[in-house]
């Protein structure tokens, strides 16, 4: 798992120790993500399946993509598709992914990079492995998170953030037994590079076997811990968790995560993504790629997409010989 590692965690700034009176968040539920397929057929775990949206708020959806070792010719992505009303956050741990959108955003991300796309009022985009990875095959592992936008920001201009792995803020637990990568939000006075409309935090932590990480967490944020790989426990009660499981935590101001002393040989440590945000507490109407407040707004989004009002595929991305249809997608005249 090469996503931003360091040889010596003792050289990093430390996560502050819990202060007296700290309330450690207790585990409310643990669910196991079912497996499925996305886009053109790449395997995913549906991290939030079976969890009430009220517990996830302000988050909507998250897929763990892979971990999969592709043979030559197997890597897959998505075709061009629309979004409106939320943000997509794609974090790549292993492998490479390319992004392009109708608003001019795009680029290639790899090993610890993050692309943060605000769909806002509407955008078309595509995600896919680069041609050289399709030819060679190789390891691919990452996740994509959907962050809701409050009603007041659902119609903002689309934007794209290209966050390089080196920009992540790196911290260590007090005993240096855990490496913490802050991608967005504030953790103990250390702020990650991601700029968010919805107040939130996103952290990727690697916890050594037998080590414990106590993360200070904003009391008005919710708290979710998703296990990318390995085994361990969450909360003061030491609730066991393993690969592909999501723990929803209750109120408090500290999140506790511990690595199991004995790990499988292919997972030398516990890797988790810790998420939290200030709940928006607004009505949600979502269908496919649109996350709005009412059913009428979802229907309008589909109408706007079909009418080409969500953007057009940039000329350099239209397959040779294809003609754009009125939705902006390649099609026959």
Automatic annotation (TrEMBL):
Binds 1 Fe cation per subunit. Residues 42-147 form the Pirin N-terminal domain. Its cofactor is Fe cation. GO terms for molecular function: metal ion binding. InterPro entries: Pirin (IPR012093), Pirin_C_dom (IPR008778), Pirin_N_dom (IPR003829), RmlC-like_jellyroll (IPR014710), RmlC_Cupin_sf (IPR011051). Belongs to the pirin family. This is Pirin. It comes from Geodermatophilus pulveris.
